[in-house]
């Protein structure tokens, strides 16, 4: 049952679970939050979790497990080698994806590392619908380059295009002809395209893109980390798919690829990862990287207890009721904020609600990281932690100039099964307040800038005393204790 009807009012998204374990939250007053933000050097990654009221940084590794997942952990067969849990996990993945061979890894980026080390040589190109930070960093650190061929329409933040993650097939053909098929390491399609707002890819587009790659002998790779949300959108938005089960759609998708990898911190509600490899010879060649970088072949750096939980989590990810809730909560949040005039990425996607920073604060130049600054402001004005997804998350061009991101967004992630509707309403309220006071937000600049993945560990400072002024205005409206 995808949606529950209401009698006296328009329906709201419903939790299809009840809460059995809770974690206490504290809302620090705004002036204390300002102190915490200074201690964190204006990088929300450096905040302590205890100082955050609604943590919407990510959906990664913070999804709520079910009682059955937790119970399964007690049955884990802890062993360095030959764990039964591993064989159960391999069987479950083969059952769902139809791919026999499985390489376990500790998380998604570890799979990206293994795949990149296997395929990428200096000068080779990896074609993607859109990059993900870690997926790109592994390719470029090996001397490869990334071509992003998402359709131009996919980058228009406010639209009604149902599958904004689709690849432009003309660009794909032209890119293969230009680079030469022999110079292309692989085609990577990212389900639920993270950096453009959790936007889905249609089955039809995956089929067409992989058909083209196959005709040129180019290996095809699916990043299935955000597949769960993408499955929901294929079933509910794509012509001819509504009568297919989630399991059937998953198999149709998997059949298109030579390799399917995932972050178990997202797909499966747990923590872990792995890579399914169709070809036996390729699988054996890649095994060495698991033993070298991850762990033995029957755990790959994962806790065996988490593996046992993931086995149950994969099955829950095939349940339409379970996977509908994330996109429905996100849709509610996006639609309400659009009604308040907040520039949101539309249509709503999976993973989180995304705000277009360039429109919310057009006075902040790209070089001063508008999305990063608004993320800071959101913590100051509500204790909400979102994630910057824009220029700050990019790496500089080889000549040292800023690589200005195509889209500049703040992501408010909805970890699966975690937040209630009242928490969602609180977030909507504070974002609306921030939108009405956006002129008070200023820019940021680096005081310490790491060369790789700088957004994780960089240190920043505001370009003026705008955080103090913003907090003073907030306190006027909400009082000293909020
Ligand atoms: C689409 C996508 N691929 C890969 C990854 C990397 O996964 P992990 O964080 O487990 O390394 C992520 C993480 O956010 C992701 O969203």
Q: Could you give a quick summary of the protein structure above?
A:
By secondary structure, the chain is an alpha/beta fold. Helix content is 40%, strand content 12%.
Q: Please, could you describe this protein's structure?
A:
The chain is 40% helix and 12% strand. Helix 5 links the parallel strand 3 (125-128) and strand 4 (145-148). The protein contains 17 helices and 14 strands. It has helices at 30-39, 67-73, 84-97, 108-119, 133-141, 169-179, 203-215, 227-237, 246-254, 280-294, 304-316, 320-339, 357-360, 370-380, 421-436, 454-457, 466-478, and strands at 54-55, 101-105, 125-128, 145-148, 184-190, 220-223, 259-263, 273-277, 352-356, 384-385, 387-389, 409-413, 444-448, 459-462. The strands form 4 sheets. The protein has a 7-stranded mixed β-sheet, with helices on both faces. A 3-stranded antiparallel β-sheet has the order 9-12-11. The chain is α/β, with parallel strands linked by helices and 482 residues long. The structure holds pyridoxal-5'-phosphate (PLP).
CATH architecture of the largest domain: 3-Layer(aba) Sandwich
The CATH superfamily label of the largest domain reads Type I PLP-dependent aspartate aminotransferase-like (Major domain)
Strands, total number = 14
Kindly give the count of domains.
Answer: 2
Q: Main beta sheet: strand number and arrangement?
A: 7 strands, mixed
| N-C termini distance | 39 Å
